[in-house]
Design brief:
Layout (H helix, E strand, L loop, with lengths): L2 H26 E6 L9 E4 L7 E5 L3 E5 L4 E5 L10 H8 L3 E3 L5 E3 L3 E4 L2 E4 L26 E3 L2 E3 L4 E3 L6 E3 L10 H5 L5 E4 L1 E4 L3 E3 L6 E3 L11 H5 L6 E3 L2 E3 L4 E4 L2 E4 L10 H4 L9 E4 L2 E4 L17 H27 L1
Antiparallel strand pairs: 1-3, 2-3, 4-5, 6-7, 8-9, 10-11, 12-13, 14-15, 16-17, 18-19, 20-21, 22-23
Length: 337
Amino acid sequence: MSLIQYVLVVMISIIVSIHAQKLAKQKIQSYASCRTDKDCKEKAFCFGNDDDTDGKCKCQKGYELIRNTTFYECLPAMKIGDPCGKDIQCQVTAGDLAFCDKYKICSCNDESHAYEGRCEYKAKIGEICMGDGNCYLENGTPGGGLGFCTDGRCKCGLNQKHSADRTKCLNSRKLGEPCVADEECTATTPNTKCSEKCICDPAYTEARNASTCVKAATQFDEPCDSDGQCSKYLKESICNGNKCGCETGFHGYTLKCVKTKKPGQPCEEDAECLYEKKLYENVKCQDKMCKCLYGNDGDGSCKIEKTDNSSASQLTYGVVYFEILFILVRLVLREYF
């Protein structure tokens, strides 16, 4: 910057400062002329008067001027939470974001919050800030209601994560540790939630290492890494060869493992006899005994008279439908060609 430019900037700054002081002086003075203090209203005094010049009525320290061209009054400056009559009473101490609410109490507007006696603009985590007072956090944030203004942006403290809506700073919690919000758990471990302490979501269970959550099996033969991954929803099941199954002598039926009983052996329920899917319509537990409904083959196994052939039926219907359609197309072509 050249010397001429520097001098010009300084002169402009001085002019602006003098003009601002003049405006400020005008703002704190009324339009009412006076010779002595007695000419002014309550809580005001005569300012700028001398033997030859009238002065203007000005409010005493701690009072704020409310004026127009024909009227003025001096109202006490109020703090946040104090009773008020006009917005200016609140704004002189708490800033432009303060106002006198419908209950006649000095409050901060919706875009701000009270901080050290002033109404500070509320900024979410990641938004621009001028100081810590801008970094407002909603109730429920552990450790206080403010974030930190660092490099002009609101940030959370050390070892903290912000909530999804960026209005809270939450401590990072591991599985089994106490918590107050889901975000504290998910910040460290996916597929978790807070229930006084961090636990896995309903569809998940703790992995073998007890530090992560894995998908819980809901059907037999689904892949697994630990017994807990199977037994959460499949009663008495185990992880065998990286697949959910049952211990020796048991088999899976719906969502549980039941003892395997073959034809001719005693039983308590049908499930014990149905150790293979092909037996579902061919074996029952009758008279406390697993019995073949359609007799036995030569090797002693049950005859299979009924099978789940719904897929085969659908395939058959599909083939028949295609053949009929093909015949109709041939007839149409023969008719016109």
